[in-house]
Specification:
The chain is an alpha+beta fold. The chain has seven helices and four strands. β3 and β4 form a beta hairpin.
């Protein structure tokens, strides 16, 4: 299995061949604070992994000291030492290895969380951008329609003055003009909302206009990809991949808790140079030890039970998320089929 961050569906937005969209997505990926914060979780998980793996190796410390003693005769004795000490827990039952494996799965979960955040962000940018273009086009059409309605109203008034139209015709045209004018504030408000949303998504201060001034129609959308089977689509969902990794991590933590119920074995030792006034004596010792639980009032067993319960809880959560994901996929596939059917009917109507 791939154990590295993957860009689900790649740089899918480039298939629209919209340079402005490409620029906005690039800004969002680089500067969106939520995505950057999610990326820092990967760094934290990696640091935890390194720390967990470090305990598999001997821990070596160094130190030194210098002391001076006075006796009753007024003489002084100087003593100096310089040495190393070693402490190494032998992972006989796999407690440390289980902890390290759990941290490794948490790294994978953090990577998939970042992929999910990335996918949601790019989708939000694209959706907001295309709606902004649509609303700008609607505003342009509304203003053009206002000009047409104003011209028609002027002509109707002129005809009314010549006795060729009734007052009803004038009032109807006036009402049509006012109804079209009433659309403009709502469209302008929606454009403002979309522009502020895009600025926020791209990590810019809202209200400082830096967006492309476009109101033309976007390029023809790319051909719809083959939908595939729901199981294949679900396998690419980073949120589900992250939850699976967390289940595996929690399972490793169960093994860690079980091993904690067993004795721990360790070896250690020290080696030092000491002497007065020079370091002319070599002193060393070695030790092997074991320590294990004798009585803890069921604390360790309770911890094992708690962690097993967490695994079961996460499995249930994953099942719920999976079922919801299947529903989403089936709904999308159904809508796609209906949309394709609608397009075929419209094309048939145009052909007749």
């Amino acid at each position: 299995a791939d154990r590295h961050p993957r860009a689900v569906s790649g740089r899918w937005w480039e298939s629209f061949r919209d340079h402005d969209l490409d620029s906005l997505v690039s800004q969002a990926l680089a500067d969106n604070p939520d995505l950057r914060a999610t990326g820092r979780r990967i760094d934290q998980a990696n640091a935890s992994l390194i720390r967990a793996g470090a305990t598999l190796f001997p821990q070596i410390d160094g130190g030194g000291d210098l002391s001076r003693r006075w006796n009753r005769e007024g003489r002084t004795d100087d003593e100096a030492s310089l040495g190393l000490s070693l402490d190494w827990e032998l992972d006989a039952w796999g407690r440390i290895r289980s902890g390290r494996s759990a941290r490794a799965e948490e790294v994978e979960a953090a990577k998939e969380d970042w992929q999910a955040a990335r996918l949601l962000l790019t989708g939000a940018v694209a959706e907001t951008w295309f709606e902004l273009i649509e609303q700008r086009g609607q505003l342009r059409l509304a203003r053009e329609q206002i000009e047409v309605n104003q011209t028609l109203l002027d002509l109707t008034r002129l005809r009314f003055g010549q006795g060729q139209s009734s007052v009803v015709d004038v009032l109807q045209q006036q009402e049509q003009l006012e109804s079209t004018q009433a659309l403009v504030p709502d469209i302008e408000a929606r454009i403002e909302e979309l522009e502020l949303a895009l600025e926020t998504l791209t990590g810019r201060l809202p209200g400082i206009r830096h967006l492309p001034e476009r109101n033309d129609e976007p390029a023809e959308p790319p051909a719809r990809p083959k939908a595939g089977y729901p199981a294949d689509l679900l396998a690419e969902r980073p949120d589900l991949r992250a939850q699976r990794a967390r289940i595996v991590a929690l399972d490793h933590e169960v093994g860690e808790a079980i091993a904690d119920c067993l004795p721990r074995f360790s070896i250690g030792g020290s080696l030092a140079l000491a002497g007065t006034p020079s370091l002319d004596r070599l002193i060393g010792d070695a030790i092997a030890g074991a320590v294990g639980p004798v009585f803890d009032a069921g604390s360790r067993k309770a911890e094992v039970a708690r962690r097993r319960s967490r695994v079961q809880e996460e499995v249930y959560r994953y099942t719920s998320a999976y079922l919801n994901a299947v529903r989403d996929v089936e709904t999308s596939l159904h809508r796609e089929r209906k949309l394709a059917e609608r397009v075929r009917r419209q094309e048939a109507q145009l052909a007749t």
